[in-house]
Amino acid sequence: MQDGLRFVDCDMHIMEPPDLFATYLDPQCKDRVVLPVGADGRPRRGMIVIDGLPLSMDTDLQQYRKRNRPHTPGAVHSTQPLSGSRIAEEGRLDFAMARNYNAEAQVMGMEIEGIDIAVLFPTTGLSLIARDHMDPRLSLALCQAYNNWIHDFCQYSPDQLKFVAMLPLHDVILLCYIRSRYIFLRSSHYGRTPLASLT
Length: 199
What we know:
Elements: E1 8-13, H1 20-24, E2 33-34, E3 49-50, E4 53-54, H2 58-61, H3 86-89, H4 94-98, H5 103-113, E5 117-121, H6 125-128, H7 136-154, E6 161-163, H8 172-179, E7 189-190, E8 193-194
């Protein structure tokens, strides 16, 4: 807050954890979503395969996807998309990478930037259901997994962290079902189907 005014970031993005679907996805759909796994057997960041098709490479093409910061002794190193950015090279993301981009790191970043309230959008999630002809039930399960995770994420500081729900856009009835639980604030295109054509 400055001069009695609160500052709101209406389009802040989060970094979904690698184990989001391992933890939150409906068990009936888990065999349809293949997550990259590290040598320790735990999910790691990388290409997600849904129904045999790799997720789009949107997260690899984002503006922050630059060369990885060289590993130096004592430095925080990560292979997450933001870890290769220009600001990461300056060490400005070390606090977030050290916390795996969790809710505490989100609020710390907001404090650094002078943001009082943030409306949170997905990052990887934006391309999860961005394909034509996806099974509507799988689309619903992916959205529900993300929405349940982001709800829990925001409980760290519910007065500061607000979220935009993901909606299953492959079936109007399912979209209306889940929309009754959430408010979706962003106009967008998924696949080749404009949202306006779904109404």
